[in-house]
């Protein structure tokens, strides 16, 4: 027997996945921009200011860490971009899935906790005759 509840959870999980990919992509793009700016700050400081040798070491270590984090942000974007593009190109489908989710939830709700009100007294007659 097929369990008839939980179908809405599957639809909802897919929609949440699409939304979370869009959000992760936005965050990664923002992080990349921020980290690019930090890189430029360090490089301009090295280029334009007189620094002590220890400063160059610290700036190099900071630059290395920033570049690692920037790479991670770019990797996230690279993975998320096809998903986000599909979601953007299929917004009509996403909207239809949202409506489908509502319809399935409504159907699931209507199948739980059902009661029946007798329309006749046929059951009482049959029970009384036995």
Structure report:
Helix content is 82%, strand content 0%. It has four helices and no strands. The protein has helices at residues 7-48, 53-89, 91-110, 122-129. Helix 1 (7-48) packs antiparallel against helix 2 (53-89) and helix 1 runs antiparallel to helix 3 (91-110).
Oligomeric state of shown chains? single chain
Strand content: under 5%
Global mean pLDDT: 92
Give the % helix.
over 70%
Largest sheet: none
Please compute the radius of gyration using only Cα atoms.
Answer: 30 Å
Shape: rod-shaped
> Helix and strand succession?
HHHH
Residue runs with pLDDT of under 50 for 5 or more positions: none
Describe how the helices and strands are arranged:
Elements: H1 7-48, H2 53-89, H3 91-110, H4 122-129
Short description:
By secondary structure, the chain is an all-alpha fold.
Main attributes?
130 residues; mainly alpha; 4 helices; 0% strand
């Amino acid at each position: 027997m097929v369990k008839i509840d939980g179908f809405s959870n599957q639809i909802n999980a897919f929609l949440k996945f699409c939304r979370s990919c869009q959000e992760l992509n936005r965050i990664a793009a923002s992080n990349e921009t921020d980290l690019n700016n930090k890189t430029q700050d360090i490089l301009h400081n090295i280029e334009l200011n007189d620094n002590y040798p220890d400063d160059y070491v610290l700036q190099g270590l900071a630059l290395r860490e920033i570049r690692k984090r920037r790479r991670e942000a770019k990797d996230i974007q690279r993975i998320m971009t096809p998903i986000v593009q599909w979601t953007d190109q299929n917004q009509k489908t996403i909207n239809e899935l949202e409506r489908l989710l509502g319809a399935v939830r409504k159907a699931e709700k209507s199948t739980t906790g059902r009661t029946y009100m007798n329309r006749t007294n046929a059951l009482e007659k049959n029970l009384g005759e036995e």
